[in-house]
Specification:
359 residues, alpha+beta, Beta Polymerase, domain 2, Poly(a)-polymerase, middle domain, 5-stranded mixed sheet, 11 strands, 44% helix, 15% strand
Length: 359
């Protein structure tokens, strides 16, 4: 009969058992490595790791202030290319902020050469997709399509069967389970034959997310690319375009706020961060709910920070159209589709004989 050794964990969970000493020893070493890793972490890193672990277990977690990632060499403020020099700092702070945001936007957006490099990578990936899946095409979407891509932003490409382009109405119909299975099979084929064995790419990985995707990096340029099985994004693009026309400074303001999330490692959706569309709409919400008299990027940034500094996300929801704050307890934000799935049953109570409601 095999020796059974009890395994314990730091938190209170149901105990499990190891069948052999080898398994128990492996577990012990893994726990020791984890403990050593936790000891070398800074306090913010440790708190963030605990918050992510609690989130993964669907438990409550305390909010964490995430500090920007620091370079080893470090930079002084005067060396940043968008900052004003000492002899230029005679103006009021808000005016200085407006100029520095404008300069930062000019620095962060792609130069002519960088834009050419991004287009080259797109065409290169398109050629490889055509070779492996000749009945498919790729469509640029995301920040590259809306004009909000920075010089180093990911390039998002949507994998689309050609027949959906020839029949526009077909793209609006939800795919059947069989079609979903075939699409995922094609994605696996593309990952294996088109990218994994191609020396032009590195870090090729297929992610099984809500919308499955292949993430990869172009070796020559270092640009990250995502080939996604996603829905058409026409409506969201039109909505973003309308807001950028309504608020001419929105593009510059978005670049600054997006950078704030990027330097803290909080803009990767797959790791629980905020996506570009979410960040964009957060900025729009702050403008529409709390417009600054200046109506420029400097005033918009100040209002963005003030608005979310005191906003109670547990109690309130935000509506942009119409402009309103929603009480989450009184006004549950549910689509008709989700609401239709909620079934209320009456279960007889054995003690009272009355009916209890249960979802």
């Amino acid at each position: 009969m095999p020796l059974r050794i009890r395994k314990t964990k730091g938190r209170k969970v149901a105990s499990t058992w190891h069948d052999t000493k080898v398994k128990a020893s492996i577990h012990k070493n893994l726990q020791a490595d984890h403990a050593a890793s936790m000891e070398t972490q800074t306090e913010p890193d440790r708190l963030l790791a605990l918050a992510r672990a609690a989130f993964d277990d669907a438990q409550d977690y305390a909010g964490v202030v995430v500090q920007p990632i620091q370079t080893i060499a470090g930079y002084t403020e005067k060396n940043l290319p968008w900052n004003l020099q000492a002899n230029e700092r005679t103006m009021p702070g808000i005016d200085r902020l407006a100029i520095e945001i404008e300069r930062f936007y000019g620095y962060a957006k792609p130069t002519y050469a960088e834009a050419l490099a991004r287009r080259h990578v797109i065409e290169q990936v398109r050629d490889h997709v055509q070779h492996v899946l000749p009945d498919h095409v790729i469509e640029v979407f995301g920040s590259e399509r809306t004009g909000l891509a920075g010089a180093s932003s990911d390039i998002d490409l949507r994998l689309v069967p050609k027949h959906t382009l020839e029949e526009p109405q077909a793209a609006k119909i939800l795919p059947t389970p069989g079609q979903r299975f075939q699409a995922l099979k094609n994605l696996h084929k593309l990952e294996y034959r088109g990218f994994s064995r191609n020396s032009q790419y590195a870090l090729v990985h297929l992610r099984h997310a809500r919308y499955p995707l292949i993430s990869l990096q172009d070796r020559q340029s270092g640009l990250d690319v995502q080939v996604v099985l996603s829905n058409d994004t026409f409506l969201s693009r039109e909505l973003m375009k309308g807001y950028m026309e309504q608020y001419p400074y929105l593009r510059e303001l978005y670049f600054v706020v997006k950078a704030m999330f990027d330097v803290r490692g909080l803009s990767d959706v797959f790791k629980g961060g905020f996506g570009s569309y979410t960040i964009f709409m957060m900025v729009v919400a702050s403008i529409r709910h709390s417009p600054h008299p200046r109506r420029d990027a400097a005033g918009g940034l100040i209002n963005f920070l003030k608005f979310y500094r005191s906003f109670d996300t547990k109690k309130l929801g935000i509506s942009i159209e119409p402009v309103a704050l929603l009480d989450k307890k009184e006004e549950a934000v549910l689509t008709d589709k989700v609401r239709a799935k909620i079934q209320v049953h009456i279960i007889p109570n054995q003690k009272t004989g009355q009916g209890d409601r249960c979802c």
